[in-house]
Amino acid sequence: MVCIAAFIILALIGVFVAIVSIFKPKIGKAYLKALKKAWGCLWKKVRLQKCETGFKDDVKNTLLSRIMLKHPKWVKPLSIIIEIFSIVIVVVAVWALLTAIKSLLALWALGTCNVTKPAACSLGAEVCSIDESEPTNALEATGRWFTEWGEIFEAIPDKFKTYRADDFEFDYIRISGDEVEGLRTAVDIFDPGCSVCMISYRNQKETGFFDSYNVRLVPFAIQDAEGNYKFKNSEIIVRYMFATEQVKSGISLGIIDRIFTEKNSEGISYQNKFNEDYSREEAIKKIESWLKKSGLDSKEIEKVRELVDTQDITEKLNQNKIVVEDILRVKGIPTMIYDGKKHTGLFEL
Predict the structure, then answer these.
(1) How far apart, in whole angstroms, are the C-alpha atoms of residue 340 and residue 346?
(2) Using CA of residue 258, residue 260, residue 266, residue 267, what is the dihedral sign?
């Protein structure tokens, strides 16, 4: 292990030595000699051959030369400490390499280098993440580490898959009445409380995306591992959207359009009001006032109110959760399906 640890350390300080050797060539030559010896030893270890004991002894003698003369009794325990320290260096280096590989694979397969908390990965797409619970002890952390590998390998085939909107049993709302013949179908999964979803929606409107595709809007309220909603009023908004669609088709789109594009009299976006200020009762009152402005009479609004908490609406939410998290293995939204691909993250202008 000493020779492997020595190679790792020598490789890490290579850049520093290269700069120093410009001014002191002898240091560079000595470094290259030691690196070649360390690499030779490492290469033999890889091929399961015996490493030259000479290099190992050279390393130990270099580190312990002064102590040998002044404190001979310390040599043996310090030699053991060097061996243990070498093992630690090798284990840490292997773990770091595996973690780097896992992060890169996750970034490619899932769009995020952090499987548990996707939004924490600065290299990934801009999303509102669907987070998993954090491990509470070392055993759970180890299990989670291996589980993440499983999720990555399961997702790799999806990179080569052709996605079609009709392959997934979503409960959705059409962006416009009947689907237009000749237009391709697109699926748009969003959370009413997600700021990235709001920006994507505005970008889609501005670029004419909704006019170029038969868009199926899938309202989805993000939950954590304990079942708590990421944005406090997203669930009731989604329920009202589905309930309204059952009473009168086309009206429910106005709910999300106002949340994503309009502001109140104080200039505060409605999304911010629903996320930060409105209680559940205040959120319901605001939604129902919009329904009235959209043309629903008191009987129709009452019918919507009766449907909101029914098992039928609950099943729609549960069905979408299964498709989004278990079948599509989505780690963050907005997520869109169009042109045969799954697109996760902000829809760019």
Answers:
(1) 18
(2) negative
* CA quadruple 192, 197, 201, 204: dihedral sign: negative
* C-alpha to C-alpha distances, 132 to 116, 226, 247, 318, nearest whole angstrom: 5, 9, 36, 17
- pLDDT tens track for 199-236: 999 999 999 999 999 999 999 999 987 888 999 999 99
Ranges for all domains in the chain classified under CATH 3.40.30.10: 162-344
* pTM score above 0.70: yes
Mean pLDDT across the stretch 149-171? 88
Report how far apart, in Å, the C-alpha atoms of 20 and of each of 16, 23, 24 are.
6, 6, 6
Half-sphere exposure of residue 325, counting CA atoms within 13 Å on the CB side? 18
334-345: pLDDT as tens digits:
999 999 999 988
Which residue blocks in the chain are alpha helix, DSSP H?
Answer: 2-12, 14-23, 25-46, 53-70, 75-110, 138-155, 195-207, 209-212, 234-247, 252-261, 270-272, 280-293, 298-308, 311-321
Both tokens of residue 315? 């099943």
Spatial distance between the Cα atoms of 327 and 67, rounded to a whole number of angstroms: 63
Distance, CA of 332 to CA of 110 (rounded, Å): 9
To the nearest 10°, report the CA torsion of 262, 237, 312, 310: -130
CA–CA separation, 190 vs 237, rounded Å? 12
Which CATH superfamily includes the segment(s) 162-344?
Glutaredoxin (3.40.30.10)
Better pLDDT: 280 or 89: 280
- Which SS3 state, helix, strand or coil, does residue 99 take? helix
- Tens of pLDDT, residue by residue over 236-263, are 999 999 999 999 988 999 999 999 999 9
